[in-house]
Amino acid sequence: xxxxxxxxxALLLTQLFSLxxxxxxxxxxxxxxxxxxxxxxxxxxxxxLQLFNKVLSDxxxxxxxxxxxxxxxxxxxxxxxxxxxDLQSKYIFMAIxxxxxxxxxxxxxxxxxxxxxxxxxxxxxSGILYMQKGLKIGEKHNAEYExxxxxxxYGVLKEMKKEYDSAFLFYNKSLTLxxxxxxxxxxxxxxxxxxxxxxxxxxxxxxxQNLDKAYQIRLEIDDKIGIAENLxxxxxxxxxxxxxxxxxxxxNKALNYSKTYNYNYLTQDNxxxxxxxxxxxxxxxxxxxxxxxxxxxxxxxxxxNLRIKQAExxxxxxxxxxxKEILTQKADLAVKNTYIVxxxxxxxxxxxxxxxxxxxxxxxxxxxxxxxxxxxxxxKIETQNRLQEQRLQISRDLHDNIGAQLTFIISSVDxxxxxxxxxxxxxxxxxxxxxxxxxxxxxxxxxxxxxxNKEAITIEDLKTRISNFIDNAQLSLNGIQFNFxxxxxxxxxxxxxxxxNIYRLIQEAVNNAIKxxxxxxxxxxxxxxxxxxxxxxxxxxxxxxxATAEIGNGLNTMKKRATELKGNFKIESAENGTSIYxxxxxxxxx
Length: 590
Fold this sequence. Notes:
The chain is an alpha+beta fold. It has 20 helices and 7 strands. It starts with a helix and ends in a 5-residue tail after the last strand.
């Protein structure tokens, strides 16, 4: 009902002004045109531009600067929806210039913010810069009303950049301003933004809490469209928490609301998600029914609605001119009506036939696409299985052949030692070194085979491996105290390569401390903070001068491993010991 009233208002307004197109609009009339509803402006941007050019000309005649500024603003909006981005930029900066002259800094902040938001799909980095400019001006002049939208939109840009902490910050800033103004319509919008971002980050409990708050407010104010939106969000929530039955229940509830109150975009989304869910539950018939409805709504939204609305506005603008033509052609129309009805009937029939042919073709295309996707998935699984078999075969060959040969070398060296080393300390030391090196090679080979046999190394696997290494070092070395601290929960697993790099880096750092530092205590720590895992290996040994010391292969190897892990690597050394720090981002959280 609200949409029909706004359309009627716009039609009556434009018709009134079209009657006096040759006259100069008064300031009051200029303001009336510039206050047209947003939906009516963007529904037919060509007609809207004609109107705004007229009021711009009349505002300039009267040196009405506020009218000039607002005209430029509305024209920039029209050019944006026509995808004429150069003209949009030109007019939005002309509007900003006039609002600066008028010292209406709240409008300046709003325009910079909206321009930055419009750039998000074309140039996200530039969009952020303009958004920051609007934000700075708005905060300087305490434009709280405009800052509500700027903070929300800036949060969206930060979320697109995957800077989630910043996105939360600005969503919460917007929420604070809305709560201060008791903005019952705006508060649920911010709560849902926060909740859906928390859902993306798998913070399910927090997400549910914010979605519940938003839903309760919308129930209290009886916001039908808002209720429909929140029911849809609950569908996504239960989908992400793997409760498919509840997800289907809430998407169906949202569908009933969105269809009842003509929220077509949400209706389209509900049908799409229901189709996916029923397909996951192997209910292919219901999945197909929902997908058909999704396709119908998608086509309707993108084509039919826009064309109907444009046709209505075109008719309104051309009414005056056509009325004169109708008076002179009225007699001829009576004869032509029959032919027109026939032509229209044939045209409608052609459209209906074409529609069903197109619909049938789309279904065939969709079916073929699904079949190809299934084939690709099966091929991918088969390839992965072959790769896994090859990895297992290689690891068996390494263990059975290389491992056996290394063991034979150790046995042979031991035999040589007993046979020839008596009374020859140098030879005995040399043979001992060869035996030790070979044993270390076997240990490293076992670690490599361990990693090869895993597609991923869990955090528990890594903890156990490091603990075993430290325990073995403790048993074989007297006079050195080892401490191992492990405290991380949200990190689940690493790729086999990353897990082995972490293990090798710790192993290399501990070996360096044992061989070179002459330490009495070595500490190894894995902890978690700020969504990062922090690894520290420290000793109380003699240390070395980082500026003058020659960097050996061990330190270079650790640096290379840190680079492969995309982590931050740092060494600190003094007379009282050396500490090695590695900070890794959480790339595997789920």
